[in-house]
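User: Please fill in residues for this 345-position structure.
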C-alpha cells in the first residue's frame, strides 16, 4: 500500500471512530475527537498506531461503562445494599446466603473455565520471532506503547508505576509462548516481583506493540489470554483477555478475618463475587430474592455474597487447582536472556 493510501486509510479510520465516539462519549462534532491528535499525526503513524489508540479508547469506555453481572436497567428497580467499597460492608450484621443463592453461585462458577494452558503455538516460527525480538531489545526499531500513545525505543521504556529495571537482562526472566492464541509467540519480561510486560511482534506491519502490562506485585501470568491476582493470601482475581490483551471477564472472591463486636469473638467472612463481563450481551439475570442477599462494592462494581467456608472452598477449588497447575506449567516457557537469545548474542 502506497503512502497516499496509508494516509487516506488512516484519516478515514480516524473519522469513522470519531463519529462512533461522538455517539458514545457525547462529542459535539467529529472534529472534537480528531483534534485530539489522530488527524494531525496521520502522516507519522501507521495503521497499527491508530488501531491501538482505538482499542485504548474503547477499553477506557468499556471500563467506565462496564457491564456488571446485573443489567443497569434492573438495578434501579431493586433495593440493593450498596457500599463505597468492601471495607464498608456491615460484616457484623451479615447473614449467610441461602441455599438457593449458593446453588445459583455454583452454577455460575461452574461455567467459568479457570484452567488455561501456556500455548506454544507454531514452534517453527520461533527462530524468526526470536530474531525480531532480539532486534527490538537491541533498539534497532521502536515499539508502540498504548499507555502513552507513542513510539519509543526499548532502552527508553519504563514500565508504568514500576521502579524496577526492565532492562536488567541478567536478573529478569523471559517468558516465550503464544499468549494471544494467534499461533505466534510473544515476549514477556518480568522480574517475578512487581511487573510483567508482554510484547507482540506483528510481522505484516514489521512492528512491536506492548500487548499487556501488569505492574503489581500480586499479578501472575496464568496461561494463554489469562492472568490472575493473588493478594496477600486473602483475595483472588481471575482475568480473561481477548486477542488484543483487553479484559473480557473478571471474577474475584476474598475472605476477611476480623473481630465480630456483636459476638465478641474472632470471625471469618467468606465472600464470593459475581463475574464482570465486558462483552456485549453477556451477564446474568437474577430474581429479587437473590439480589436481596448481595452486597454491592461500588469501587470495583461487583456484587458479593457471604458463604460458609465449606461453600467457599467448593466454589473456588478449581481456581486454586488451576493456579497451582499454571505455576508449574509456566516453567516450561521460562528462560534466561542467554537461554532465549543465545544464538543471536
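Assistant: Residues filled in for all 345 positions:
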Amino acid at each position: 500500500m502506497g503512502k497516499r493510501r496509508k494516509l487516506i486509510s488512516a484519516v478515514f479510520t480516524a473519522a469513522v471512530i470519531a463519529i462512533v465516539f461522538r455517539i458514545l462519549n457525547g462529542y459535539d462534532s467529529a472534529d472534537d475527537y480528531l483534534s485530539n491528535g489522530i488527524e494531525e499525526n496521520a502522516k507519522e503513524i501507521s495503521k497499527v498506531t491508530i488501531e491501538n489508540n482505538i482499542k485504548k479508547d474503547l477499553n477506557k469506555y468499556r471500563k467506565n461503562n462496564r457491564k456488571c453481572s446485573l443489567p443497569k436497567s434492573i438495578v434501579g428497580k431493586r433495593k440493593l445494599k450498596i457500599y463505597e467499597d468492601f471495607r464498608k460492608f456491615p460484616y457484623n450484621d451479615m447473614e449467610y446466603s441461602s441455599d438457593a443463592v449458593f446453588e445459583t453461585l455454583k452454577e455460575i462458577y461452574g461455567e467459568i473455565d479457570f484452567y488455561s494452558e501456556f500455548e506454544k503455538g507454531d514452534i517453527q516460527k520461533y527462530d524468526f520471532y526470536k530474531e525480531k525480538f532480539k532486534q527490538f531489545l537491541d533498539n534497532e526499531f521502536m515499539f508502540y506503547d498504548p499507555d502513552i500513545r507513542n513510539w519509543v525505543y526499548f532502552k527508553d521504556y519504563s514500565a508504568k508505576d514500576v521502579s524496577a529495571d526492565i532492562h536488567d537482562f541478567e536478573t529478569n526472566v523471559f517468558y516465550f509462548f503464544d499468549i494471544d492464541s494467534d499461533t505466534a509467540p510473544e515476549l514477556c519480561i518480568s522480574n517475578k516481583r512487581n511487573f510483567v510486560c508482554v510484547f507482540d511482534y506483528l510481522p505484516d506491519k514489521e512492528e512491536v506493540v506492548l500487548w499487556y502490562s501488569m505492574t503489581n506485585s500480586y499479578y501472575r501470568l496464568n496461561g494463554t489470554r489469562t492472568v490472575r491476582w493473588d493478594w496477600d493470601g486473602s483475595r483472588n482475581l481471575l482475568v480473561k483477555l481477548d486477542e488484543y490483551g483487553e479484559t473480557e471477564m473478571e471474577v474475584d472472591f476474598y475472605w476477611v478475618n476480623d473481630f465480630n463486636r456483636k459476638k465478641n469473638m474472632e470471625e471469618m467472612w467468606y465472600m464470593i463475587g459475581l463475574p464482570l463481563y465486558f462483552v456485549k450481551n453477556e451477564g446474568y439475570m437474577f430474581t429479587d430474592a437473590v439480589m436481596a442477599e448481595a452486597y454491592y462494592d461500588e469501587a470495583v462494581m461487583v456484587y458479593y455474597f457471604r458463604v460458609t467456608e465449606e461453600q467457599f472452598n467448593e466454589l473456588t477449588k478449581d481456581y486454586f487447582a488451576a493456579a497451582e497447575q499454571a505455576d508449574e506449567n509456566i516453567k516450561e516457557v521460562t528462560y534466561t536472556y542467554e537461554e532465549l537469545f543465545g544464538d543471536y548474542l
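For context: The first helix runs from residue 3 to 25.
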